[in-house]
Amino acid sequence: MLHTTQLYQHVPETRWPIVYSPRYNITFMGLEKLHPFDAGKWGKVINFLKEAIRRKVELDWGVEDDEYLDKVEANIKKALQEHLPDVVVYNAGTDILEGDRLGGLSVSPGGIVKRDELVFRAVRGCQVPILMVTSGGYQKRTARIIADSILNLYGLGLIGPESPSVSAQNSDTPLLPLAAP
């Protein structure tokens, strides 16, 4: 059965570029797929996501390390107090880096490393497994910053085989059910 959507308007195949056709209707975890060039539906998607956000933290353009890190630290702790998840998927984007024209913030490389440390300390302190994924960051230097952050987390014992905290390797609780329904 074809999934119907209210987010798109049909684009005829004779129109260039073809971004969407009803034949492409799919969902993932209840969310309709997103096309990066579907500017017409982004407003509806943003409104949908805003309604789903329980802890709204807004930052002004150009925010630097101190303000950013204070908000991260305060809000990660409050979020974990409000709801302790079974697992955290941490989107560790680097588009917050100073000079990134798309991210709009002005966080230093050291600030990014510190942010990751704050998040890992808070989550690990609650004995919750954490999966870090990298994203964003549109500068060549972001690869080095991500590597520095991972080395810092490893050096602090927040990741790696000797980590005393919960991880996928040492947890008695499987992250996924053993048998599919």
Automatic annotation (TrEMBL):
Signal peptide positions on this chain: none
InterPro entries membership: His_deacetylse_dom (IPR023801), His_deacetylse_dom_sf (IPR037138), Ureohydrolase_dom_sf (IPR023696)
Pfam families associated with the record: Hist_deacetyl (PF00850)
Gene: HDAC11
A GO biological process held by the record: epigenetic regulation of gene expression
Keywords: Hydrolase
Entry GO terms, CC: histone deacetylase complex
The protein's name in its UniProt record: Histone deacetylase 11
SUPFAM superfamilies, per the entry: Arginase/deacetylase
Keyword DNA damage included in the entry's annotation: no
Organism, as annotated: Microcebus murinus
GO molecular function: histone deacetylase activity; hydrolase activity
Residue intervals of the Histone deacetylase domain: 36-150
